[in-house]
């Protein structure tokens, strides 16, 4: 009997086997697409807003959900065109179909969306440069059923939770979803009072809870408003707990932690930053969607021992690679600054870590602290 993993592999292979038919676009076409990505995404949104089936596509969701998808798709394709990594395209498309279908968006929407992209490209780009881009979207349209099959088989193994923490985890998870800050805080205090270290509270309780809430959103079990409420409650709870922790006198050195450009999920970066600070690092924490220039300027200004980048959405992997390339180019030739990556996107597709070009991929806060301790002490 085939296992779930073998089914997943078969679905993925059916999709990736199509990749041989794809031909890389010339650099000038890739550059034009990237330069006009925002305008193309806006035109696609405008076309979809007037589509005769838009009510069915939305299925009760706000139109903003599709607008976000169009912007993310533009960033993804711009990155794919720069790198010609079509295997990454296949992986992210299956994740995207899975996530949005979980919100009630029918698969038929993706057909209409991709046709709208073709129309936008024909309207905004010169015919010569548009040709290979249209071929790419024809490939996506032709692979539609295989992408659906891969999306239906899509699974990701969540972070592990020790058996003895299951009960507390379940209570905190439901409190976060309900926005019950005080109840969540009480359970966390009880765990800390019983000897659970703060980093392990993040690793075994908070991170898995936010991961599961994200999965529930992808599966349509919680709304985007509930997900945002849970995130806000988690920030409030963690801020209260963080300032109650003992801060070390030791100064290990400078570090930068940041979500990558185009990434608005900040909680993972915040947790890594908090654990490093509690271990003696002076951390510059950059906000979500800091520009590529903002990240590189911070690295030049701070001269950190390492930069840790957080990537939550697979669609942001191409821009993460661009950030890493630009960081390396902007640092002095003799720089010993390390570049680390982590986040849910790398759990979704672990093979992406090497492709990104980072020095190291780390799965959680505790791993980041343990690795940072291996660095020579600051002078």
TrEMBL record:
GO molecular function: cobalamin binding; metal ion binding
B12-binding domain segment(s): 252-379
Pfam families in the cross-refs: B12-binding (PF02310), B12-binding_2 (PF02607)
Alphabetical list of InterPro entries matching this protein: Cbl-bd_cap, Cobalamin-bd, Cobalamin-bd_sf, Meth_synthase_dom
Protein name (record): Cobalamin B12-binding domain protein
């Amino acid at each position: 009997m085939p296992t779930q993993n073998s089914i997943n592999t078969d679905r993925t292979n059916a999709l990736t086997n199509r990749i041989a038919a794809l031909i890389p676009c010339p650099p000038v076409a890739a550059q034009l697409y990237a330069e006009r990505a925002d305008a193309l995404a806006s035109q696609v949104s405008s076309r979809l807003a007037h589509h005769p089936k838009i009510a069915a596509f939305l299925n009760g969701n706000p139109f903003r959900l599709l607008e976000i998808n169009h912007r993310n798709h533009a960033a993804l394709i711009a990155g794919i065109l720069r790198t010609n990594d079509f295997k990454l395209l296949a992986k992210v498309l299956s994740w995207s179909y899975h996530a949005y279908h979980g919100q009630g968006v029918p698969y038929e929407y993706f057909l209409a969306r991709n046709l709208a992209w073709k129309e936008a490209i024909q309207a905004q780009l010169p015919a010569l440069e548009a040709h290979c881009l249209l071929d790419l979207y024809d490939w996506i349209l032709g692979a539609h059923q295989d992408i659906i099959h891969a999306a239906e088989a899509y699974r990701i193994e969540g972070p592990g939770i020790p058996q003895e923490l299951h009960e507390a985890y379940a209570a905190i998870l439901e409190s976060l979803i309900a926005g019950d800050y005080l109840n969540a805080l009480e359970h966390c205090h009880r765990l800390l009072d019983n000897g659970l270290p703060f980093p392990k509270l993040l690793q075994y309780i908070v991170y898995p809870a936010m991961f599961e809430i994200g999965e529930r959103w992808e599966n349509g079990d919680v709304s985007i408003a509930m997900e945002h409420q849970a995130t806000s409650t988690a920030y409030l709870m963690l801020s209260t707990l963080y300032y109650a922790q003992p801060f070390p006198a030791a100064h290990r050195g400078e570090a930068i932690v940041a979500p990558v450009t185009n990434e608005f999920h900040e909680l993972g970066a915040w947790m890594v930053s908090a654990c490093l600070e509690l271990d003696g690092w002076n951390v510059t924490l950059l906000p979500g969607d800091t520009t590529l220039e903002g990240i590189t300027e911070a690295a030049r200004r701070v001269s950190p021992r390492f930069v840790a980048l957080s990537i939550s959405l697979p669609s942001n992997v191409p821009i993460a690679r661009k950030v890493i390339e630009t960081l390396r180019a902007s640092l002095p030739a003799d720089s010993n600054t390390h570049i680390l990556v982590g986040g849910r996107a790398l759990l979704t597709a672990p093979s992406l870590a090497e492709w990104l070009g980072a020095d190291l991929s780390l799965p959680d806060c505790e791993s980041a602290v343990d690795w940072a301790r291996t660095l020579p002490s600051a002078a």
